[in-house]
Amino acid sequence: MAKRGDPKTLVLNNFEELKFVDNIYCPQRGQLRLFRFHPFAKYMVSKLVCSVPVQQMDVNQQQQLLKQYKERCKIKQPHIFYSIESESQKTMKPGQFGQTEVFQIFVFFEYGQLTLHELTERRQIKRYLVPEPEVWCLIKGIMQAMHFFQNNNIPHGMITTKTIYFDEEYLLYRVYDQELIGGRWGNFNKYQQTKDPEIQVFLAPETKPFLNSEASLLETAQINPFKVDVFAFGIVLLQCLTLFQAFENPLKWLDQFYSKNLITYITQCIQPDPNKRQDWIGLYQLPLEPSQDQKINERNSLIQSHFENRGQKTFR
């Protein structure tokens, strides 16, 4: 009798071994090792997530740390890329005073390829806006992932159009457990203090005073990382719905084509005052679909003419 469970979980749980393919580099995820499942055609990547000199940690502490990573890999949610395993090794690493033995932990996880940024660029070429039902699929998928994260006290910390992925096989919008592959708060602080203008547009106003500070934002000020993530997601939606076009008042322009509920949702996300901005749990109280009497405007010819009458100025 066939085993019960969804096909993806069955594949992830029943592969026999991982076959190494090559070393690759991803701007969002860093240096990775690419593997494929055997005997399946699926593929995973592994990343070094922890490296500690052996003299700083005894064997029991090493095993306890590895156990924590293994437990974290068991966290599963459909809109979060699966982490299936973690492994450890000891290796020699060159240092200031010669070779040092280090304890390393690698995590194996699914490799997402098609980013929301790339999807939006495809639409930009055709000059067709995203149909509203698809926008709600994006919102609901990311909301489910982020709500799950917040309930487990896990911030994402680096939401952009390039860190949200579309799974073409399962037709899901998905994100990574950035804390697992980047370290507790590590990505958050690095991302929030970036000087990259393409990333700074996603930063919440309350983080701006600390851009040049080397101290941890979460230690320097009472910043709610979940509300910071919400703001970034609002900017993601603006970029996607305007196809990266720059508008003086993008919400007013989008109001021609999208429902009141959608405009209200985005407005809540990009609320500049963090005391008034909802976190993911609060956003769940908003209607996550257009009401029955709100007609969705999907007249692509009209939308296309709007873009043709404007220049190619972009806001990214």
Automatic annotation (TrEMBL):
<feature type="domain" description="Protein kinase">
    <location>
        <begin position="18"/>
        <end position="289"/>
    </location>
</feature>
<protein>
    <recommendedName>
        <fullName>Protein kinase domain-containing protein</fullName>
    </recommendedName>
</protein>
<dbReference type="GO" id="GO:0005524">
    <property type="term" value="F:ATP binding"/>
</dbReference>
<dbReference type="InterPro" id="IPR000719">
    <property type="entry name" value="Prot_kinase_dom"/>
</dbReference>
<dbReference type="GO" id="GO:0004672">
    <property type="term" value="F:protein kinase activity"/>
</dbReference>
